[in-house]
C-alpha cells in the first residue's frame, strides 16, 4: 500500500505543486469528498450487480463480517508473526476478503440444507461472524484505535488528519540501532507480569532494551530530533489511497468481466451451458465486494456501507433499461450523493441552499440521506417509470376511455337525438363528470352541440375508429 | 463461427432423418438424485440425429432434471452423456438450450436483441465484446421468430409468447446441432404455439435434432415424430407411432388412467 501511495504522491506532485497538494488534502471538506466519491464509484457499480442478483442484503452482511477478517488477520500478524500493529496493512485487507467469501459460503451451506431460505440464512450467518469479531476485538486487540464510533459511522470526517508523510527529494531515512548514541536504553522487568511481582522485589529480573530503535522516515527523524534537516513533505491521507486502490480494482474487474457478469446475472443456467463458470465468478464478485466493503467500512462504518452499494444502484435501475448504463449511472449517482452529502452535513442542501440552524452533523449519514433524496426524486420524476409519469399516464388513459365511452354511445345510437338530460339518464354519470367530458369533446371538435342537441362529428368518428383499432 | 464448416459437412453426410449411424444424444445409466431421492433412475436413452422428440411424463417425472443433467447444470450421481459421439463437456457448442421462461428475471435491464446476442457469448473469448457481426446474427435470428420489430424493446415489455420466442431466437443464433427445450409451449397462446411448431419443424428440416419437454398429450402425435415417455425411469422411447400407445401411457401415468384413456382414445 505504501509503495502505491508513493507512486500517487509522485504523480500528484508532477501535476500540481507540493503546496497545492498539501493544501488540497489539508481541507477536511476536500478529503472527505474525495474519499466519499472514491467509495461511491466502485460500490455503486458492484451494487448494480448485487441488486440484479437479488443479493442486496449480502453487501450488508459482508460489510459487517469483514471486521472478523480484519481482526483475525490482525491477531495472526501480531501474535504469530510479531509484526507491528498496523491497520492499513494489506494483510488485513486480504483477511477481510476472506471473511467476505466465508460469509457467502456459510450462507449457502445453511441454504443448501434446505431448511432455511436465503434471507434467514444470511440473518444466521452474518451476526454470528460479526459477534465473533466483536469478542475478538475486546479480547485480543489492544492499543489500537478501533472504537464503537468508528464501527458505527466511520471516520470520513477525520480522514484528512490520518496521513502518511512523504518526503519529496533525496532525504535519507534514519536508522537507530542499540549502539547508536541517540538510542534510549531502558531497563524492563521480564518476569514482573508473569510472576505478578513488584519491580522493586529482589526476585525481579531485568534486561536492557532499546526503546526507540528502528527505521525513521525523514519526516519522523526530523520530528524526533535525529536530524536538523527539515524535509519537504507531502501529507497524503491514507484512506484516499485505500479507496483509490479499491476503486481501481473494482473498475478493472467489472471492465474485464462485464460480459461474464452480465450473462451469469441474467441467466446462470445459459451461462453454464455455454461453458461459463457462474459459481467461480460469483465468488470473485464477493471478493471484490469485500475489498470495497473494507475501504467503505473504514470511512463510513459498517452499518451505512449497504447504502453506498444499493441506493445508487436502485436509483439507476429506475432510470435505464441497459445494464451498462445502469452501472455507469449508479457510480455517478453515488458520487453525486457523496459529494452533496458533505454539504448537507454542514447545513447546505445541494451545496447552495442553506438550511436553518447550526449544522455540524455526521458526514457519512448525510451522504446516505443525500443518496436517498436522489432516489426519491427519481422515483417521483423518472420520465419512464416515475410515479408522477405513471400517474399522469393513468389519468390520460382514464380520460381517453371515458371520452370513448361517450363517443361510442353516440355512435351506437346514431339515429337518436341526445340532449344533456337524456345522456345523463342513459350513461348514468354524475352531471359534473358528464359536463366535463362533453366540454372536452366539444373543444376538441369531436362532438357538435347545436341548440342542446348533441351529435358526433366526423372528427369524433375518426377518433373512435382509431381507438377501436388500437384496442383490438 | 469456427465450427460452421464442420456442421455443414455433418449435414451433408447424414442426409436422412433418424440416421442411426450417428446419435445426436446418447445417455447411459444416468442417475440424478436430490438428497439421495432419485429424480431420474438409471436412464438409458438414445436420440437419433434429425428427430423432433417429445419428452413426456407426469409432474415430478424428472423431465427437466434429465435435460439439466445432460447440460451439466446439476450434478450427475452416475452415468455418462455423449453428444454426437463426444462427451458433452467437449461438445458444448453443438448443444443449444432453451430454459423455462420463468427461470430468469424479465425485469432485467436489457433489450430483446441483447438477450439473443447472449446466445453467442460462448464463442467469445475473455475480454471480447459482442460486436456488429454478433448483432447481425442476433437480428437474423429475431427475424426467424418474427420479433425483428421488438429488437430494441426492454424485455419486460414483452408478452409471455414473445418472451418464449426471444428464448427460441437465442437458441437459434447458437446454430447448434442438438436443441434441448424445457417446456417451450408452457402458457403461450394458440398463435404462438403454431409459430413455435413451425420453427421446430424448420429446425428438423435443416437436420437439427430437437428434444422438447412437453405436457400436452393431445398434440404429441401432431408435432413430434419421436417420443420418450419418462417417469423417473424410461418407460418407452422410439418413433411416436409405436411408442405413444395407450399401454405405454398407462405405465407412465399410473393412477390417472381415466385421463389417459380419454387422450389415447381420442388419438387412436
Main attributes of the structure:
heterodimer; A: 472 residues; mainly alpha; ABC transporter involved in vitamin B12 uptake, BtuC; Arc Repressor Mutant, subunit A; 3 domains; 10 strands; 8% strand; elongated; B: 268 residues; alpha/beta; 6-stranded mixed beta sheet; disordered N terminus
How would you sum up this structure, described in words?
The complex is a heterodimer of chains A (472) and B (268). Chain A is mainly α and 472 residues long. Chain A has 3 domains: 2-157 and 236-309, Orthogonal Bundle (ABC transporter involved in vitamin B12 uptake, BtuC), CATH 1.10.3470; 170-230, no CATH class; 387-471, Winged helix-like DNA-binding domain superfamily/Winged helix DNA-binding domain (Arc Repressor Mutant, subunit A, Orthogonal Bundle). Helix content of chain A is 66%, strand content 8%. Chain A has helices spanning 2-15, 18-26, 28-52, 56-80, 90-112, 118-140, 148-153, 192-195, 218-223, 238-256, 258-266, 268-273, 278-300, 305-319, 323-345, 363-381, 387-412, 420-427, 431-443, 458-471; strands at 163-168, 174-176, 185-189, 206-210, 214-216, 232-237, 348-349, 353-354, 447-450, 453-456. In chain A, the strands form 5 sheets. In chain A, strands 1-6 form a two-stranded antiparallel ribbon. In chain A, strand 9 and strand 10 form a beta hairpin. The mean pLDDT of chain A is 84. The longest helix of chain B has 16 residues, at 190-205. Chain B contains 10 helices and 10 strands. Chain B has one domain (4-267): 3-Layer(aba) Sandwich (Rossmann fold). In chain B, the strands form 2 sheets. Chain B has a 6-stranded mixed sheet with strand order 6-7-8-3-9-10, sandwiched between helices. Chain B is an alpha/beta fold and 268 residues long. Chain B starts with a helix and ends with a helix. In chain B, strand 4 (78-83) and strand 5 form a beta hairpin. Helices cover 35% and strands 26% of the residues of chain B. In chain B, helix 3 (112-118) packs across helix 4, helix 4 (132-144) packs across helix 5 (160-173) and helix 9 (246-253) packs antiparallel against helix 10. Chains A and B meet through helix 11, helix 12 and helix 15 of A and helix 3 of B.
Amino acid at each position: 500500500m505504501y509503495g502505491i501511495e508513493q507512486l500517487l504522491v509522485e504523480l500528484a506532485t508532477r501535476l500540481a505543486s507540493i503546496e497545492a497538494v498539501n493544501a488540497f488534502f489539508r481541507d477536511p471538506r476536500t478529503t472527505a469528498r474525495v474519499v466519499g466519491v472514491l467509495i461511491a464509484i466502485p460500490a455503486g457499480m458492484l451494487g448494480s450487480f448485487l441488486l440484479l442478483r437479488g443479493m442486496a442484503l449480502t453487501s450488508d452482511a459482508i460489510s459487517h463480517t469483514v471486521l472478523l477478517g480484519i481482526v483475525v488477520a490482525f491477531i495472526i500478524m501480531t501474535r504469530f508473526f510479531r509484526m507491528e500493529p498496523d491497520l492499513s496493512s494489506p494483510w488485513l485487507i486480504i483477511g477481510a476478503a476472506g471473511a467476505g467469501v466465508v460469509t457467502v459460503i456459510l450462507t449457502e451451506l445453511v441454504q443448501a440444507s434446505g431448511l432455511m431460505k436465503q434471507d434467514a440464512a444470511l440473518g444466521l450467518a452474518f451476526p454470528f461472524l460479526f459477534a465473533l469479531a466483536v469478542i475478538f476485538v475486546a479480547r485480543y486487540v489492544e492499543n489500537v484505535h478501533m472504537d464503537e464510533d468508528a464501527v458505527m459511522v466511520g471516520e470520513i470526517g477525520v480522514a484528512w488528519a490520518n496521513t502518511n508523510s512523504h518526503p519529496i527529494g533525496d532525504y535519507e531515512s534514519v536508522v537507530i540501532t542499540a549502539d547508536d548514541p541517540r538510542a534510549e536504553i531502558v531497563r524492563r522487568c521480564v518476569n514482573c507480569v508473569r510472576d505478578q511481582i513488584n519491580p522493586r522485589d529482589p526476585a525481579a529480573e531485568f534486561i536492557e532494551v532499546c526503546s526507540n530503535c528502528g527505521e525513521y522516515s525523514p519526516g519522523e527523524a526530523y520530528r524526533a530530533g535525529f536530524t536538523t534537516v527539515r524535509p519537504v513533505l507531502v501529507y497524503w491521507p491514507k484512506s484516499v489511497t485505500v479507496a483509490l486502490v479499491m476503486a481501481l480494482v473494482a473498475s478493472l474487474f467489472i471492465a474485464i468481466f462485464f460480459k461474464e457478469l452480465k450473462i451469469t446475472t441474467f441467466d446462470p443456467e445459459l451461462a453454464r451451458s455455454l461453458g461459463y463458470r457462474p459459481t467461480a465468478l460469483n465468488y470473485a464478485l464477493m471478493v471484490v465486494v469485500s475489498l470495497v466493503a473494507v475501504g467503505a467500512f473504514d470511512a463510513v462504518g459498517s452499518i451505512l456501507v449497504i447504502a453506498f452499494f444499493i441506493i445508487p444502484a436502485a436509483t439507476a435501475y429506475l432510470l435505464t433499461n441497459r445494464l451498462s448504463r445502469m452501472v455507469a449511472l449508479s457510480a455517478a449517482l453515488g458520487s453525486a450523493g457523496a459529494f452533496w452529502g458533505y454539504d448537507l452535513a454542514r447545513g447546505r442542501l445541494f451545496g447552495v441552499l442553506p438550511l436553518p440552524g447550526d449544522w455540524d452533523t455526521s458526514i457519512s449519514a448525510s451522504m446516505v440521506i443525500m443518496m436517498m433524496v436522489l432516489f426519491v426524486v427519481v422515483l417521483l420524476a423518472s420520465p419512464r417509470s416515475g410515479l408522477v409519469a405513471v400517474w399522469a399516464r393513468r389519468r390520460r388513459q382514464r380520460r381517453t376511455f371515458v371520452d370513448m365511452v361517450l363517443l361510442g354511445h353516440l355512435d351506437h345510437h346514431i339515429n337518436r337525438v341526445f340532449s344533456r338530460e337524456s345522456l345523463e339518464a342513459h350513461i348514468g354519470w354524475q352531471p359534473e363528470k358528464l359536463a366535463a367530458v362533453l366540454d372536452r369533446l366539444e373543444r376538441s371538435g369531436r362532438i357538435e352541440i347545436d341548440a342542446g342537441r348533441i351529435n358526433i362529428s366526423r372528427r369524433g368518428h375518426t377518433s373512435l375508429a382509431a381507438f377501436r383499432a388500437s384496442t383490438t | 463461427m469456427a465450427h460452421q464448416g464442420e456442421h455443414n459437412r455433418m449435414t451433408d453426410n447424414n442426409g436422412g432423418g433418424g440416421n442411426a449411424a450417428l446419435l445426436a444424444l446418447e445417455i447411459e445409466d444416468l442417475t440424478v438424485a436430490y438428497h439421495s431421492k432419485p429424480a431420474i433412475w438409471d436412464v438409458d436413452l438414445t436420440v437419433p440425429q434429425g428427430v423432433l422428440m417429445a419428452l413426456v411424463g407426469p409432474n415430478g417425472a424428472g423431465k427437466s432434471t434429465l435435460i439439466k443433467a445432460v447440460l451439466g447444470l446439476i450434478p450427475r450421481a452416475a452415468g455418462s452423456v455423449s453428444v454426437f459421439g463426444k462427451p458433452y463437456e467437449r461438445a458444448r457448442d453443438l448443444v443449444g438450450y432453451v430454459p423455462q421462461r420463468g427461470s430468469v428475471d424479465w425485469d432485467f435491464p436489457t433489450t430483446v436483441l441483447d438477450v439473443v446476442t447472449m446466445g453467442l457469448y460462448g464463442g467469445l473469448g475473455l475480454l471480447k465484446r459482442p460486436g456488429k457481426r454478433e448483432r447481425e446474427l442476433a437480428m437474423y435470428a429475431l427475424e426467424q421468430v418474427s420479433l425483428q420489430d421488438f429488437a430494441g424493446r426492454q424485455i419486460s415489455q414483452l408478452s409471455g409468447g414473445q418472451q418464449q420466442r426471444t428464448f427460441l431466437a437465442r437458441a437459434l443464433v447458437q446454430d447448434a446441432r442438438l436443441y434441448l427445450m424445457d417446456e417451450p409451449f408452457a402458457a403461450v397462446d394458440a398463435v404462438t404455439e403454431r409459430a413455435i411448431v413451425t420453427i421446430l419443424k424448420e429446425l428438423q428440416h435443416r437436420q437439427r435434432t430437437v428434444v422438447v419437454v412437453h405436457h400436452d398429450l393431445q398434440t404429441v402425435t401432431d408435432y413430434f415424430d419421436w417420443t420418450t415417455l419418462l417417469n423417473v425411469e424410461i418407460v418407452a422411447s422410439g418413433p411416436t407411432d409405436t411408442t405413444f400407445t395407450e399401454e405405454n401411457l398407462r405405465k407412465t401415468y399410473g393412477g390417472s388412467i381415466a385421463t389417459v384413456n380419454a387422450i389415447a382414445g381420442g388419438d387412436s
